[in-house]
Design brief:
- The protein contains six helices and two strands, in the order αβαβαααα.
- By secondary structure, it is mainly alpha-helical.
- α2 links the parallel β1 and β2.
- The radius of gyration is 17 Å and the shape is globular.
Length: about 130
């Protein structure tokens, strides 16, 4: 609901500061949360919602990530408890950002596209585990 969306947007604001715009889907609670968290503080911040798949600005990548996590959750028959859920989702986050090449990024990982080269070599999972 709105409370969860407000918490999410406050977390985002704490991490990124003052964004120029926020992209979300058309869920009403996002609109209300945006007005409370961003519009009240930064009148120049724009909320882009109800975007379509072919629009110039869209949330396709976020929705793809949600689909990836949802696919994994189904195989696991849901996430059991908050502690195990966090561990699984943290692993998915590492896999998605540092290990898995993305077709939309010309076969690179999001980390590589962002210029973060960890020199992980051929077996990225192994290299990450060794670094830990």
């Amino acid at each position: 609901g709105v409370g969860v969306a407000i918490t999410l947007f406050r977390d985002v604001r704490a991490k990124v500061g003052k964004p120029k715009f926020v992209v979300s889907d058309g869920m009403r609670s996002y609109h209300k949360a945006f007005n409370k968290v961003f519009w009240d503080y930064y009148r120049s911040c724009k909320h882009i919602s109800e975007v379509g798949i072919t629009d110039k600005v869209n949330n396709n990548r976020v929705e793809r990530l949600h689909g990836t996590i949802r696919d994994r959750e189904k195989v696991m028959r849901a996430l059991g408890n908050p502690e195990s859920s966090k561990k699984i989702l943290d692993g998915q986050k590492v896999y998605y950002n540092y290990v898995r090449p993305h077709m939309a990024l010309d076969g690179k990982t999001p980390a590589e596209m962002a210029g973060l080269d960890l020199n992980l070599g051929e077996n990225k999972w192994h290299s990450l585990i060794e670094e830990r």
